[in-house]
Amino acid sequence: MRVCAYLRQHNLFKYFLFPVATIILWHYRDKYGIDIPSSTTIGTGLYIGHFGEIIVHPNTIIGDNFTIGQGVTIGVAFNPERMGTPTIGDNVYIGPGAKVFGKITIGNNVQVGANCVVTKDIPDNAVVVGVPGRIIKYRGSENYSVDRQL
Ligand SMILES: CC(C)(COP(=O)(O)OP(=O)(O)OC[C@H]1O[C@@H](n2cnc3c(N)ncnc32)[C@H](O)[C@@H]1OP(=O)(O)O)[C@@H](O)C(=O)NCCC(=O)NCCS
Fold first, then answer.
1. Is the Cβ–Cβ distance between 125 and 138 less than 8 Å?
2. How far apart are CA 97 and CA 76, in angstroms?
3. Atom of ligand 1 nearest to the CA of 139
4. DSSP, residue by residue, 21-34
5. What is the DSSP string of 35-85?
6. Does domain 34-137 sit in CATH 1.10.150.80?
7. Which residue's CA lies nearest to atom 6 of ligand 1?
8. CA of 79 to the centre of ligand 1 (A)
9. pLDDT (tens place) for every residue of the chain, 150 residues total
10. Where are the domains of the chain?
């Protein structure tokens, strides 16, 4: 994914190596069940703990030190009021099975609990669980998100 993103940005590689890298990326997408397009904006320190059924919309914007569990979907909402895709801050943890969609903002240091469904903005440091997602505390994502810049 990172290689594809790099190749797409450089005219020298865009028309030859990028298509080849994209085919390899598609192969890994199908093999591991992780569909994160190379056009997705993701900061450094991405961590995918387990394989399987991870789907991220290409227009999603994600910050640094993002941790994503298996079975997570981050996608578009079709509700006209929130049509669009999420913007996710730094040091965010999204637990297994969670779904996050719509033109919403997830703040920095947020924890999204397992199987949670988030369709509204979440402020910095919040821990959100359940369906629909509700904030249960403001503890930040310590212990769940690792600073991988160190
Ligand atoms: C969201 C999460 C981080 C919160 O952890 P926590 O701060 O320790 O929360 P607590 O265990 O103190 O629970 C607080 C309340 O929220 C509820 N709760 C916690 N996680 C929940 C979840 N995912 N869905 C619904 N409710 C949840 C608890 O039942 C408790 O409710 P109560 O106050 O009525 O008793 C955690 O529950 C979670 O989902 N972790 C994911 C773990 C994980 O991904 N492991 C790796 C798997 S590969």
1. yes
2. 16
3. 7
4. HHHHHHHHHHHHTE
5. E--TTSEE-S--EE-S-S-EEE-TT-EE-SS-EE-TT-EEE-B-SGGG-B-
6. no
7. 127
8. 28
9. 999 999 998 888 888 899 999 999 999 999 999 999 999 999 999 999 998 899 999 999 999 999 999 999 999 998 888 899 999 999 999 999 999 999 999 999 999 999 999 999 999 999 999 999 999 999 888 878 777 766
10. 1-32, 34-137
User: Ligand 1 in contact with 87 (CB < 6 A)?
Assistant: no
Cα–Cα distance for residue pair 87/19, rounded to 1 Å = 27
CB count, 10 Å around CB of 34? 20
Joined together, the tokens standing for residue 110 give 């947020």
pTM score, two decimals? Answer: 0.91
Give the total residue count for the chain. 150
* C-alpha closest to that of 93 among 73, 71, 103, 108: 108
Is 88 within 8 Å of 75 (Cβ atoms)? no
Burial degree of 46 (CB within 10 A; 0-12, 13-18, 19+): middle
The token pair at 119 is: 């369709």
